[in-house]
Design goal:
232 residues, Rossmann fold, alpha/beta, 6 helices, eight-stranded mixed sheet
């Protein structure tokens, strides 16, 4: 069970909340967990708790705080799903990345200057890709990050390990978009991309109708091995 902390913005003009889960012993490293469009909901907190069980310090920043602090939405509730779409259309990606960078710095301090990874889902998957291009995260993982295909002009900046997971039946990230991502990123030795035939967007959620156990377990096992290798 984690707790909430406050993190100062890079500009020192405000602060935002973040959920923190700590391991029972010394942390192997820290991992910043980047939310879906549903805020720091029970599923994201569960992701942090699982990482803490694996020996990592896990921190999930509230990236909607400038719009409405403390957003927690249920993707299986149609009305709340529409609310989530409204939030993500208004959020500033640049400010969200700045807040992720501030979280990385806070996480690195908490592990005495040790390594910090990033993992993001959906909206957070796109931001995990951008964390690989714009921050000093030691390793980044993105699950079904929408919009990456429109941000490939930043790919030249990827100089540290990046792992991307995509769903074969994703109606938001269609095969042509995944193909464009492959074409741009496959030549980069730092990037690994996996696809999951038969899985749909959101397949690795901890709870709810979107979860695909087989795909989620395979992707999460690959993520765990990736972090073991690159955050050691």
């Amino acid at each position: 069970m984690g707790s909430m902390i406050d993190i100062a913005t890079l500009a020192r003009d405000g602060q935002f909340a973040a959920y923190v889960a700590e391991p029972s012993g010394p942390a192997k490293a820290a991992i910043v967990v980047i939310q879906e469009i549903f805020g720091i909901n029970p599923g994201i907190r569960a992701k942090c708790d699982r990482l803490a069980e694996d020996g990592y310090l896990a921190i999930a920043p509230d990236l909607f705080w400038r719009l409405q602090p403390g957003v927690e939405l249920d993707p299986d509730n149609p009305a709340e799903l529409q609310q989530a779409f409204g939030f993500v259309q208004k959020v500033s990606v640049d400010l969200a990345i700045a807040d992720i960078e501030a979280t990385i710095r806070a996480a690195r301090e908490r592990v005495s200057g040790g390594k910090v990874g990033v993992v993001g889902y959906c909206f957070g998957g796109r931001l995990a890709y951008l964390a690989a291009t714009r921050t000093d995260a030691d390793a980044s993982v993105g699950y079904y990050g929408g919009g990456i295909d429109s941000m490939l002009g930043e790919s030249h900046a990827i100089a540290r390990p990046l792992l991307l997971h995509f769903a074969g039946e994703d109606k938001h990230i269609t095969p042509d978009k995944v193909a464009a991502i492959h074409a741009a990123l496959d030549p980069n030795r730092h990037v690994t991309i996996h696809e999951y035939p038969g899985a749909d967007h959101g397949f690795a959620t901890e709870f709810g109708k979107r979860r695909n156990d087989a795909a989620a377990e395979q992707a999460d096992a690959r993520t765990a091995e990736f972090f073991r290798e690159h955050l050691a």
